[in-house]
From TrEMBL:
Cofactor(s) the record lists: Zn(2+)
Reactions accelerated catalytically: 7,8-dihydroneopterin 3'-triphosphate = 6-pyruvoyl-5,6,7,8-tetrahydropterin + triphosphate + H(+)
Protein name: 6-pyruvoyl tetrahydrobiopterin synthase
Catalytic residues of the enzyme: C44, H91, E135
Organism: Muraenolepis orangiensis
InterPro entries, sorted: 6-PTP_synth/QueD, 6-PTP_synth/QueD_sf, PTPS_Cys_AS, PTPS_His_AS
Highest taxon listed in the record's lineage: Eukaryota
Any Pfam family the entry gives: PTPS
GO terms (BP aspect): tetrahydrobiopterin biosynthetic process
Residues annotated as transmembrane: none
Length: 146
């Protein structure tokens, strides 16, 4: 049996915070012709764009600090999520308002990478383990920094 007392090993836990946000976008690649864009992205290439109510699940992995009982203080994780997700992305047009997506297609895959890269820069403790993004109730991407 493992010993998680004061002198035993520090157990590792995975802490997840869920955050919803709304954004619009259009799937369009600068590397493809207009015809190719229409063919690949179909209705999602409509110049008027469309919107989603996204759901992000951010998971941090780390040892449970003996003194605090925490992997990361949820207050700090919430601040990071505000800075990386809510500020830049909520109620924004991803392609027009977020410089990263000027030349990167705003798929859920790329959105997960964007969120991962920026969260990794600001997390104070623990290690970012997983970013999960639901674009719709039916479509979800998991990114683990690989
Ligand atoms: N690999 C990916 N493919 C597609 C993405 C994506 O992010 N990665 N995104 C889109 C569109 O942006 C859009 O989100 C798809 O919307 P829609 O087809 O309406 O969504 P649902 O599958 O949930 O709805 P249905 O009820 O099945 O129509 C397209 N492809
Ligand atoms: Zn979409």
């Amino acid at each position: 049996m493992s010993d998680h007392s004061r002198t035993g090993p520090q157990p590792v836990a995975y802490l997840t915070r869920v955050q919803s946000f709304s954004a619009s976008h259009r799937l369009h690649s600068v590397e493809l012709s207009d015809e190719e864009n229409k063919s690949v992205f179909g209705k999602c290439n409509n110049p008027n764009g469309h919107g989603h109510n996204y759901r992000a699940e951010v998971t941090v992995r780390g040892k449970i600090n003996r003194a605090t009982g925490m992997v990361i203080n949820l207050t700090d994780l919430k601040s990071c999520i505000e800075e990386v997700i809510m500020g830049p992305l909520d109620h924004k047009n991803l392609d027009q308002d977020v410089p990263y997506f000027a030349n990167v297609v705003s798929t859920t895959e790329n959105l997960a990478v964007y969120i991962w890269d920026n969260l990794a820069k600001v997390l104070p403790v623990g290690e970012l383990y997983e970013v999960k993004i639901y674009e719709t109730d039916k479509n979800m991407v998991v990114y683990r920094g690989e």
